[in-house]
Amino acid sequence: MSGRKAAAPVPFTDPMEENSAKKKKIIKLILAALLLTALFLYGLFFLRGLQEKKAPRIFGSTYMTMNNPYFTALNESIREVVEANGDILITRDPAQDQDRQNQQIQEMIDEGMTVLFANAADWTKIGPALEACREAGVAVFVVDTDVREREGIVSIIQSDNYLAGVLVARDLMKKMPRGGDIVLMNHDSVYSTVERRQGFLDTIGDRKEYRIVAETHNTSEIEVATAEMNRIIQSGIHFDAVFGNNDPTALGALAGIQMNNVTEPILIYGVDGSPDCKTMIQRGLVEGSAAQYPIQVGREAAETAYRYLEGQKVQDTVLIPVTMITENNLSDFDISGWQ
After folding, report:
1. Are residues 78 and 173 in the same domain?
2. Range in 21-30, 133-142, 196-205, 227-236 with the lowest mean pLDDT
3. I need a labelling partner for 312 at 20 to 30 A (CA). Which of 2, 18, 192, 333 fits?
4. The pLDDT of residue 1
5. What is the pLDDT of residue 12?
6. SS3 309
7. 146-164 pLDDT, tens per residue?
8. 286 with 270: CB under 8 angstroms?
C-alpha cells in the first residue's frame, strides 16, 4: 500500500442555491440604498422646513406717541396675532414728531420689514415714508386715523371717529338743553381728531345757544392739555363744557380745572373709554367718553394683514363702532381694563 493520503472530497455546491443567495444580497443592497435615499430626502425636506420656520417675517408698527395707553393696548393686540403666527413685531415711538416717524419707518424697511401698521403723527406729512414703503414692497395698513395720501395703502382700520363726535354732542345737548359755552381741545395734525370735531360740530349744527368759546389745536396728551386749560382759565374765558379729542386730553383738562380751583360744574368729555377715564366717570369728575375698542382694532388690523398676505381680498376701509360711556351704562364695562 502506498503511504499517500487520499485527497479530501470537494464539497458539492448547487448552482441554483448560489444564484439565489446572490439575488437576495443584491435585493438587500437595493433596499438599503432605497432606504438611505428616502431618509436623505426626508432629512432634506425636514431641514428645509426648519429653515423656513426659522425665518419669521418682520412686521413693523409706529404710532404718533406711545405716551397714551390706548396705543399700548392696540399694539399689544397686534403683537399677539403676529407672534401667534411665528412672526416678529418691532415698534417705534416718534413722540409726536413726523420727521422722526418717517426716519424710523425707513429704518424698519432697512431691517427687512414686510408689513407696516402706521398711525401718523401728522396725517399730511407721512407721505414720504409711505412712498418708501411702496418702493420697498412693504404692505401698509393704516390704524386708528386716516392719511392724506392713500395711494399704495392696503387697508385703513380705525374707529368711527365721526360718530364719536356725534355721540358726545348728543349727550352734551341732552344734559345742557338750554345751551352753554364749550371749549374744544383738538389736535389738527391727527385726522381722527379732525373727524371727531366735525362730528361734534355737525351735530350741534346752527343752534346758537351752543357757543364755542375757545379751541386748542395741538393737544392730545395730559401734560399739554393741562397747560392749555391753565391758559384758558387764566385768560378769563367762561365755559360750561369741555370736549377733549381723546381721554388724555379730557384728563388733562380736568387736572387744569382742579389746579385752578374752579368750583362751577363743568361737563368734561373725552374719546377712548380708557380705564383712567372710566374711573373718573365713576367718581363723577368726567361726564363721559366715546369708547373705542383698541383690542378689536389691533386684532382686526393684524388679521386683515394676514388675509392679504395669503392672497385674499380685503376691505380698503374697516370702521369699528364706538359706544358712549356715561355713569348710566358704566356698569356694562370693565373699569379696570379696555373694552
Report:
1. no
2. 21-30
3. 192
4. 46
5. 54
6. helix
7. 999 899 999 999 999 999 9
8. yes
- pLDDT in the model for residue 39: 73
Q: For 184, list phi and psi in degrees, rounded to 5.
A: -105, 125
Work out the number of other CB atoms within 10 angstroms of the CB of residue 256: 22
Q: Give the span between the Cα atoms of 293 and 74, in whole angstroms.
A: 8
C-alpha span between 152 and 63 (Å, rounded): 19
Same domain, 124 and 169: no
Extract the C-alpha cell encoding 22.
446572490
Q: Let me know: does 245 contact 185? Beta carbons within 8 Å.
A: yes
Q: Which residues touch 161 (CB under 8 Å, ≥6 apart)? A: 145, 192, 193, 195, 196, 199, 271, 322
What percent of the residues of the chain are helix, what percent strand, and what percent coil, each to the nearest 5? 45, 20, 35
For the segment 181-203, the average pLDDT, to the nearest whole number, is 97
- Give the pLDDT confidence score for residue 19 in this predicted structure: 62
Number of domains observed in the structure of the chain: 2
pLDDT for the residue numbered 24:
67
pLDDT band at 282 (very low <50, low <70, confident <90, very high): very high
Give the type of residue at 91. Answer: T
Beta-ladder partners of 325:
289
Owner of C-alpha cell 396675532:
81
* 137 and 113 Cβ atoms separated by less than 8 Å: no
Q: Which residues contact 145 (CB under 8 A, 6 or more apart)?
A: 119, 120, 123, 158, 161, 190, 191, 192, 193
> Residue 261 maps to which CATH number?
3.40.50.2300
Interhelix angle 222-234/247-259, nearest 10 degrees? 40
